[in-house]
Amino acid sequence: MFHLLKHVFLPIDRIISSFPRAFILAHMLLGTVLVYMSPRSNLAFLVLITSFFSLYHFPTDRLFKLTAGMVLTLLIFPVLGVRNIFYLEVIFQISVFAALALGLNIVVGFAGLLDLGYVAFYAVGAYLWAFFGSQQYYVLPFAPGTQPSNLPFLLPGDAFYLFMFIAIIVAAITGILLGTPVLRLRGDYLAIVTLGFGEVIRVLANNLDKPLNFTNGPQGITPIQRPTMPEWVVEGFNRTFGWIVGHDVSPADMYNVMFYLMALLVIVVIVYVTKRLDDSKIGRAWTAIREDETAAIAMGIPLVRMKLAAFAVGASFAGVMGVLLAGSRTFISPESFSFMQSIGVLAMVILGGSGSIPGVILGAATVTILNLQVLQGLSLYLSQLRQSDAVIPIINFAWANLSTQLDPAKYQRLLFGLILILMMIFRPEGLIPSQRRKRELSGEENVSGE
């Protein structure tokens, strides 16, 4: 009887165990086909990008997840991205903000320090490569807009790779210099000081065009060099994937692919370093500081040193992404490093789950897609309706009379504010909470329930 039941239920167990893999592969295939057939469809892109969530959510073995993730990130996204370069730009933005959110997660999620000027370290890395990788060194004696057009570049473009490592050191030192005088503060006082530091960096970038023109002021620095793109890379990509893409890929498109892959590599390194730190003595010290600074001091934890370590590590992540931003854009200006950028990155951390690595990445993807695709797409759709003769049924209201002040893209801050309020009420631990944070909140609920 036992052998008969075994033969009956064994195929069922195999079917059940293979369902997650089949669903993930079907999700990936459906998203790929939809994007390939409709390269400009936002809905198709959302179907494809959410396959990462299926890959994370469904229980499968690590080898399958690793293989499927590599196929998505290293094959499907680059090939489909060059068919519609805007998709690749969205993915690059997600990667950049995911790295920034992971860095801020060290400061806010692990150490419990509220930093409202985090974008300042991003600016340090960007302006570091912008100065040395452009003609700005030779522009120092000239007022903005008066320099000759035939000035040489200070360093070759391939020095970009070296400056990715230099930016880690410079940004970490900047974080230590910021933290040394202010980390004895706590809570709101620390937040106000870091906010002021972020604004100081932005104002300096905006005004350091005299008496020596270091930053070119509000006009920004351009052109900023990119590393050399070998011809065989473009030719090899066209030979291998040209028939899928449908046209020859230009070097400019390959630069987008290259910077996307570099951002992806930086994220992998950041995730590895973050996980190692979280499981180390430093990570446990950060947790103790976040929970109770007085108790942490009583247990012999060097408070200032651990806080400085959190600031330095988080700042280094932002610094390297600043170099990537400057190289990919070939132009930077102070407007890219406003206070609202810091708030946006903080919103990603809170939305995804403070202290959670996958949650923070999901938060960065959600906020970026809402910004660049959903809200912008709705605004473009309303703009098209205004140019048509269509009317709203029942009320007989012409779309042409709809005010431009109602465009969804203008209310992104309002939308994010509402999202954060709802998150704090219904899911304070975030979309994908860390296990420690989940236990803490459930423990509080049990105590209050008692």
Quick tags:
450 residues, 2 domains, two-stranded antiparallel sheet, 18 helices
Write structural notes for this entry.
The protein is an all-alpha fold. The chain has two domains: 83 residues, no CATH class; 259 residues, no CATH class. Helix content is 72%, strand content 1%. The chain is built from 18 helices and two strands. It has a two-stranded antiparallel sheet. Helix 1 runs antiparallel to helix 2 and helix 6 runs antiparallel to helix 8. The termini are far apart. The C terminus is likely disordered.
What's this, in brief?
By secondary structure, the chain is an all-alpha fold.
* Strand element count: 2
Structural class: mainly alpha
Indicate the percent of residues in helices.
over 70%
Taking the alpha carbons of the first and last residues, their distance comes to 49 Å
What topology emerges from the helices and strands here?
Elements: H1 2-37, H2 42-49, H3 51-57, H4 62-83, H5 85-110, H6 119-132, H7 136-139, H8 160-182, H9 187-207, H10 231-245, H11 251-278, H12 281-291, H13 293-298, H14 303-329, H15 339-352, H16 357-386, E1 391-392, E2 397-398, H17 412-426, H18 435-449
Antiparallel strand pairs: 1-2
Helix pairs in contact: 1-2, 1-4, 4-5, 4-11, 5-11, 5-14, 5-15, 5-16, 6-8, 6-9, 6-14, 8-14, 11-14, 12-14, 15-16
